[in-house]
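WARN no homologs supplied; continuing
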Amino acid sequence: MKKQFILFGIILFTSAASLAITLDERAADSRKVIKEFAGQLKGKLQEGMKKGGPVNAVNVCKTEADGIAQKISTKYGWEISRTSLKTRNADNAPDKWEKNILEDFEKRKDAGEDPTKIEHFKIVNRLGKRYFRYMKAIPTGGVCLSCHGEKLDPKLTTRLDKLYPEDKARGFALGDLRGAFTITQPLD
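OK structure emitted
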């Protein structure tokens, strides 16, 4: 009986250690994919800014962001996107799990955690299937304020109102959490 208990303990410990390594590896892979997505999106937005300032950058974001996310999602077989508690595009609204994590991110930032390092990952069950879910906070940087800040150019405001009539992604200050990158990896 004692041998069985010890053997069960070893198996349980080994399984837990294996799971932890798998979670850490998945998180590391997710960070790389987020870096790829953010880099491509940033490049397109910078091109847009150079060609026509914030009004053009918003046009680029409207036409390019979802395509970049879809291309990378297809490449990896994962769902990759952005979300926020204050979305610009209603299609990017957080699901219940994401909303809870975003609210937790806000608490963590308010408690002094560095917003550039805030992330969360976990294996979850959804509709009878297992998924690895990952979120990485997007802090508001100086360039973000051009389109998401408190004082926006009137031409930009007019364009935003036309492209995004339900826009809530304004009024951010430097260092605020703009939202998060989010990844869902199927495990089953």
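Helices lie at 2-76, 96-110, 145-148, 154-163.
OK
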